[in-house]
Amino acid sequence: MSDYGPLTYEGDPPASAAWREGDHPGNRQFIEIPRFVTQSGFELGRVTVAYETWGELNPDRSNAIYICHALTGDSHVAGPAGPGHVTSGWWDSLVGAGRPIDTDQYFVVCANVLGGAQGTTGPSSISPDGNPWGSRFPVVTISDMVEVERHLMQVLQIPQWLLMLGPSLGGMRVLEWMSQYPELVRGGLVLGSTAAVSADQIGIHATQIIAIESDPHFHNGDYYDQVVGPVLGMGLARRIAHLSYRSETELDVRFGRSPQDDEDPYEGGRFAVESYLDHHAEKLARRFDANSYIALTRAMSLFDLGRNRGGVAQALSRITPPLTVVGIDSDRLFPLRLQQEIVDLTPGADRLHILRSPYGHDGFLVENEQVGEFTRHALARAEKEATIER
After folding, report:
1. pLDDT digits (tens, 9 = 90+) for 85-125
2. Is residue 387 exposed (0-12), middle (13-18) or buried (19+ Cβ within 10 Å)?
3. Angle of helix 231-245 relative to helix 199-213, nearest 10 degrees?
4. What is the phi/psi pair of residue 101, to 5°?
5. pTM exceeding the 0.85 threshold for the entire prediction
6. For residues 74 and 115, what is the distance between their CA atoms, to the nearest angstrom?
């Protein structure tokens, strides 16, 4: 059994940094879904769901909050790095005693998504034949992820989420939940997301997927028994993605044309921004899995809330519980017009809330104070709705 954490940069990256059965569980808890069929009709058989919780359910089970993580996030929303967790909580400033989501008052749940790399069934998981799913793992959708989360909700015997919130990929799941199951979500918060992924975003996603699949160590997705995995391809994908996550202004102000330390770009050395991108590529290779990157990126490209629902306007018209929609003013991946569309078409939305940040899409990870204020606003709306209904 591996101690699996915290993150180290010693030695070469593994073929896959996915959490595997036998690794230290850390703070994860697990449930099993005995049979799960994807939207495409593929039967996965048993599905394991890894999740974490904070706080306690109150007697009438009405104080539960669900957090939906983004693409390379996981269930470890809050808490330090350590055995089982290579990094600290990705929204640590938001969840905890005395924080905007106060765990002295609320019961908080976050699960790793279907197809993920940190404990929930995904491409790196062992299939019924005893081998990793690898290339055989099916295409999964945002709807599939929500169905897995709904199974978890039933196992935990939570009748309704007081608030469901998430950024980016997480925001897509919030919208899917609230359109498909509006009676199960008292209030929502969507941050830096969209109701239907655009052609520009699909193009960015496709370029990243090709980068991974072109790596000679990808082996068509069956690399788990190899010493070297497609870490170079995933690193290239991460560099492409990271440029869309950050704003041009921030990168220029932060790095400009500065060389990296003692390196000279005119003699083959790197610019500082190249070193920055190299670091994020290396970091991802030591905490994630290339097949999961592909699976979740494809799921994002497929996301269209209006599919089989009469269009986006019809799907959003079902969302009558209070929905707080937040856009990031410097986000070039999910620009403000996409969040404005959600507000314009959703009965439960109040207005477009603007997170002001030079950091682009990643502002949801950086601007802790603003994210906290938006969360308090969303919680107040959900609590008011609950009081009216009682």
Report:
1. 999 999 999 999 999 999 999 999 999 999 999 999 999 99
2. exposed
3. 160
4. -100, 95
5. yes
6. 11
